[in-house]
Design goal:
Elements (H helix, E strand, L loop, with lengths): L5 H16 L10 H18 L10 H17 L8 H9 L1 H25 L6 H26 L4 H11 L7 H12 L15 H26 L10 H20 L3 H23 L27 H6 L6 H6 L21 H9 L1 H15 L14 H35 L1
């Protein structure tokens, strides 16, 4: 065995010192995410005490998601820094971060039950019921990201925790389809969770919900068949998730009465729709190209829309660093990195929700970015097949017009650039 030279020892010592000096500057800021359901509990409790004076608190969830978080993103800005490579292993092994993810779940369940109790009281005005439904649904929608973080881990306790996080939105099948379907087919026309250029969110929503559920059943059925088991077995993770959901609904109904069931369904639908609108944003129009054998290229940073706005990253466990997540699906949120070559969104995910709901706004905001990403060759994008010819015709004309404009105006600019280069 080779003995270490003095230089090796010095280098090792320097690396250890450098690693020990680096501390996660966001270590305690990550607590913002599990703090959200606690804020929800406080808001709903205050509403319960003084419903007439504090009616606005019934709308805390939508206000946070569509107002406060996007505003804070703009105020605080972006952070493109990455943890040093020699600190990644230490970050991953620190149990503190896993506990942060799990801390969301107990207060999430409590908040949902309080919301159900309030919404089912006879003297609550209809507008307040709507606000309570959206508030609870909004925070349970964020909880899906908690389930996403935990569901990517191999340990059984993490995967079970993911089921508990997903149960209030009736979306436990997501852990199966996302991990073994979406990650394999991402940014291809075959993926129900990858939106296509020219496809509105309202067209995408039923497609991704229905096809995503079918995909989860197919994936789990095939997994069990490989083990020589049928669908109706205790090892079926879909059945396990549905059992947790049934237990949650049963518990809430036992506390709040049968009128809680329509509330739970409504808030769950809204919460799940928040997941799907984020899915819509993440891969819009991006397409993995095929090689000469007809196989899709490997997933790379260019196949996900990214963002570095700080507050949304803290709330959503850095889901916005989506390219690194697809490169390393099991990598924990605190260690995800920014790729400068990855396509960037004009705002944080929270800021992109309202534009996604309004097709004309969304297309005006994003279609040009998709075209620019593919340097004017729109045929390389993932296009809505029903609008393919229309989109190619439209953007071909736009590209031709831009070429003409550049030719007419570019000569002086090119001369000046050449002169600057020579100087």
């Amino acid at each position: 065995m080779n003995a270490k030279t003095p230089d090796d020892v010095l280098n090792q010592t320097a690396n250890e010192q450098r690693k020990s000096k680096w501390k996660d500057p966001k270590r305690y800021k990550w607590l913002l995410s599990p703090a959200l359901p606690v804020i929800g509990i406080a808001a709903l409790s205050a509403y319960a005490i003084a419903p007439k004076k504090l009616r606005a608190l019934a709308w805390t969830g939508p206000l946070l998601v569509h107002g406060v978080i996007p505003a804070l993103d703009r105020m605080i800005g972006e952070d493109e820094t990455n943890p040093p490579e020699d600190a990644i292993r230490e970050l991953e092994s620190d149990p503190y971060y896993n506990l942060i993810s799990k801390a969301f779940i107990p207060s999430q369940w409590v908040m949902t039950i309080i919301g159900a109790w309030l919404a089912t009281r006879k003297n609550v005005p209809m507008m307040d019921r709507v606000g309570l439904t959206l508030s609870v649904g909004a925070l349970n929608g964020i909880a899906i990201v908690t389930g996403h973080e935990l569901g990517h881990k191999h340990e059984r306790h993490n995967r079970v925790s993911a089921m508990f996080a997903l149960a209030p939105t009736f979306y436990t099948h997501f852990a199966v389809e996302h991990n073994f379907g979406h990650h394999r087919r991402v940014s291809t026309p075959e993926d129900p969770a990858s939106s296509r250029m020219g496809e509105s969110f309202w067209k995408f929503l039923p497609r991704t919900v229905i096809e995503g559920f079918k995909s989860a059943v197919e994936i789990e059925t095939k997994r069990l068949e490989r083990k020589g088991k049928g669908f109706w077995t205790l090892e079926n993770e879909l059945l396990q998730g549905w059992a947790v959901t049934a237990g949650f609904v049963g518990l809430t109904t036992a506390i709040c009465g049968p009128r809680a069931i329509p509330f739970l369904v409504a808030q769950g639908a809204y919460g799940a729709s928040l997941l799907e609108v984020v899915n819509y944003v993440e891969h819009y129009g991006l397409l993995r190209q095929k090689d000469e054998n007809g196989k899709y290229e490997r997933t790379s940073p260019e196949h996900s829309w990214n963002s570095n706005f700080v507050v949304t990253n803290l709330v959503l466990y850095q889901l916005q660093r989506h390219s690194d997540h697809h490169a390393f699906p099991t990598r924990s949120f605190q260690a995800l990195r920014h790729f400068p070559e990855a396509p960037q969104l004009p705002g944080g995910y929270a800021s992109m929700l309202l534009p996604a709901y309004i097709p004309s706004w969304w297309f005006a905001l994003m279609d040009q970015r998709v075209v620019d990403h593919y340097q004017g060759d729109i045929t390389k994008a993932n296009l809505d097949p029903e609008r393919r010819e229309e989109l190619i015709k439209k953007w071909s004309k736009v590209s031709e017009a831009q070429i003409v404009d550049s030719a007419e105006e570019g000569s002086p600019a090119e001369d000046s650039m050449e002169g600057a280069a020579v100087a």
